[in-house]
């Protein structure tokens, strides 16, 4: 799992993976941020983690190569991004074709990018939500796997709305990652299909 934030999505996956029937296991955590909350979560769960910080590399291309090497060490079946706020280069995605999945706190294709919650609130939508999708070369543009709608309530600010979205997002991510681990993931054009 690639993550850089507080790690509520990682925490939900770590809780789920303790159940042998779940089917998925978090085999490693990679963050671009030294000291990110996700690293402490991984340590407490006994999951190996590594920091691959852009500042440690000559340029973005070298960082992407370093990231790919660090992730490959864990030999993951799938790579899950949650709050990993960096754009992955095609060279990284080519190492794990059709196997990189991201969660985004909006109903894509609406409100892609780093401020999906803020943008939805500013637009005045009455319903937003979260999306689990396959990562492609664009920003939040890959084939959609699953979505959950979340209401915007009067008086919401970015924080209250994002927290409400995160409750749905954690459930959707745990459910979707478990299905992918048990059944597999296939990408056919714009369609991402969970299943053999
Ligand atoms: C999630 O809402 C994710 O969709 C967004 O950043 C947030 C990360 O939250 N990209 P956490 O670090 O998993 O709590």
TrEMBL record:
Tell me which residues make up the Formyl transferase N-terminal domain.
Answer: 2-177
Q: Which residues bind (6R)-10-formyltetrahydrofolate?
A: 60, 85-88, 102
Q: Which reaction does it catalyse?
A: N(1)-(5-phospho-beta-D-ribosyl)glycinamide + (6R)-10-formyltetrahydrofolate = N(2)-formyl-N(1)-(5-phospho-beta-D-ribosyl)glycinamide + (6S)-5,6,7,8-tetrahydrofolate + H(+)
Pfam families xref list: Formyl_trans_N
Tell me which domain of life the UniProt entry assigns to the organism this sequence originates from.
Answer: Bacteria
* Catalytic site: 104 (proton donor)
What's in the keyword line of the UniProt record?
A: Purine biosynthesis, Transferase
How would you classify this enzyme at the top EC level? transferase
**Record's keyword annotation contains Disulfide bond:** no
EC numbers on record: 2.1.2.2
Q: Where is this site: Raises pKa of active site His?
A: 140
Q: Per UniProt, where does N(1)-(5-phospho-beta-D-ribosyl)glycinamide bind? A: 7-9
- Pathway annotation: Purine metabolism; IMP biosynthesis via de novo pathway; N(2)-formyl-N(1)-(5-phospho-D-ribosyl)glycinamide from N(1)-(5-phospho-D-ribosyl)glycinamide (10-formyl THF route): step 1/1
UniProt similarity note: Belongs to the GART family.
Check the record and name the NCBIfam families matching this protein.
PurN (TIGR00639)
What HAMAP family does UniProt report for this protein, alphabetically?
PurN
In UniProt terms, what function does this protein have?
Answer: Catalyzes the transfer of a formyl group from 10-formyltetrahydrofolate to 5-phospho-ribosyl-glycinamide (GAR), producing 5-phospho-ribosyl-N-formylglycinamide (FGAR) and tetrahydrofolate.
Write down what this protein is called. Phosphoribosylglycinamide formyltransferase
What gene, per UniProt, encodes this protein? purN
């Amino acid at each position: 799992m690639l993550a850089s934030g507080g790690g509520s999505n990682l925490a939900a996956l770590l809780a789920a993976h303790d159940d042998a029937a779940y089917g998925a296991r978090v085999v490693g955590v990679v963050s671009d941020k030294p000291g990110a909350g996700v690293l402490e979560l991984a340590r407490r769960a006994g999951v190996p983690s590594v920091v691959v910080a852009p500042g440690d590399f000559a340029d973005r291309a070298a960082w992407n190569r370093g990231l790919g090497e660090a992730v490959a060490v864990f030999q993951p079946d799938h790579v899950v991004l949650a709050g990993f706020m960096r754009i992955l280069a095609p060279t990284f995605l080519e190492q794990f074709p059709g196997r990189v999945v991201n969660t985004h706190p909006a109903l894509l294709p609406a409100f892609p990018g780093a401020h999906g919650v803020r943008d939805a609130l500013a637009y005045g939508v009455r319903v937003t939500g979260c999306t689990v999708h396959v990562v492609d070369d664009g920003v939040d543009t890959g084939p959609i796997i699953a979505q959950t709608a979340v209401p915007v309530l009067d008086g919401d600010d970015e924080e209250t709305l994002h927290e409400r979205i995160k409750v749905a997002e954690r459930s959707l991510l745990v459910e979707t990652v478990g299905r992918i681990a048990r059944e597999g993931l296939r990408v056919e054009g714009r369609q991402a299909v969970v299943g053999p």
